[in-house]
Amino acid sequence: MTRPVPIDLSELGLPATPREAAAGDPPAVHVRARLDQQLRALLEHEAVARQGIDPEGVHQMRVAVRRMRAALKASGEPEFAAAQAELGWLGGILGRIRDLDVLLAHLRAQAADLPADERAAAERLLHGLVEERRRARRRMLDTLRGARYATLLTTLAALVTAEVDGEPVRERVAQQALLDVVTKPHRKLAKAARALDDDPSDEDLHALRIRGKRLRYAAELAEPAGGKPVRRLIKATKEFQDVLGEHQDTVVAEAEVRRLLAEQTDADADGGVDADVVFVAGRLVERERTRRAACRARWRDTLDEVDRLAADLVPGRRPSGH
Fold first, then answer.
1. Helix spans in 76-201 (H)
2. Do 95 and 140 contact (CB within 8 A), yes or no?
């Protein structure tokens, strides 16, 4: 089965009005309201992603996928495992093209202030990434037209519209139950941070960023119950993510520049090495290392703020320290 155009809400059986969760509703209702919101976002941005003009379409689809996975994980309901796995598959497809979009935009920005001949050399260096992105886009379009994706949308819509057992509870009890979804990802983040030495590896910092992302999405789920304190946590966690995200971007960018240079050097072995490309690659690597050092000088301060705000949501608990 192939789909030349996106599925709409009526095909999935979703009502025109999104599902809502009241203050006294149990977490399962909030999870389904979150799923509804993000499924609609996924469908809205799918049309933009298919067009291929604005890279935000793919980015926002990927964000919606991550938020849905986080909501399902936070619920703790075992029947959501299959949907989580399928969202992981879709996220991988979208992630590849998004990562290439970010990498190309970043490296072109780094080369933007170079002389014209060096910018041209940078484009020759990046030619392989442009071709990889073209292949990744074809794969994404095949995925969006395919039966597996259509089945995933149907499954998610069924989860959204399913009835939830249980009566509404007192608002204060419901709020605390929702805030509890923040506790576990925060605890894991703090524990992982304490295990790091003074000069953690790039891989360890990347893993820490992923834990921070999980905390942020859990906090977004809890925002209706937590109000301003949770919104402050979300803001702080985003700053933490941004710092370590930039750090990871520099790691990936340097590795990709080196890979592209090695591939071109091997291919040009018989015809001579493009000296301008070699020179530009060296300049780009130097710039990535400077940015990486700046990120390493900042990340612990941003994490301390996340830790403090998350601990404040739990009565009687103080920040763990790093």
1. 81-111, 116-145, 147-161, 171-194
2. no
End-to-end CA distance of the chain: 52
274's torsion region: left (phi>0), alpha (psi -120 to 50) or beta? beta
- Give the DSSP letter of residue 198: S
- The two tokens of residue 88 are 């992981």
Give the Cα separation of 286 and 254 in Å (integer).
9
Question: Distances from the Cα of 290 to the Cαs of 34, 176, 191, in angstroms?
Answer: 40, 44, 29
Q: Record the tokens describing residue 85, joined without a space.
A: 């796995």
Contact 33, 20 (CB under 8 A): yes
| Cα 6–chain centre separation | 22
pTM: 0.81
Other Cβ atoms within 10 Å of 26 Cβ, number: 18
List pLDDT tens digits, range 167-223. Answer: 444 445 445 666 777 888 999 999 999 999 999 999 999 999 999 999 998 888 888
Question: 226: how many CB neighbours lie within 10 A of its CB?
Answer: 20
Dump pLDDT digits (tens) for 79-103. Answer: 889 999 999 999 999 999 999 999 9
Whole-angstrom distance, CA of residue 284 vs CA of residue 278: 10
- Dist CA 218 CA 261 (whole Å): 41
pLDDT in tens, 241-300: 999 999 999 999 999 999 999 988 776 656 567 889 999 999 999 999 999 999 999 999
Q: Are 61 and 110 in contact (CB under 8 A)?
A: no
Element (H, E) at 63: helix 56-75
Q: Can you tell me which residue has the tokens 């949770």? A: 230
Instruction: Please give the Cα distance from 251 to 292 (Å, whole number).
Output: 7
**Could you give the domains of the chain?**
7-169 (1.40.20.10), 170-310 (no CATH)
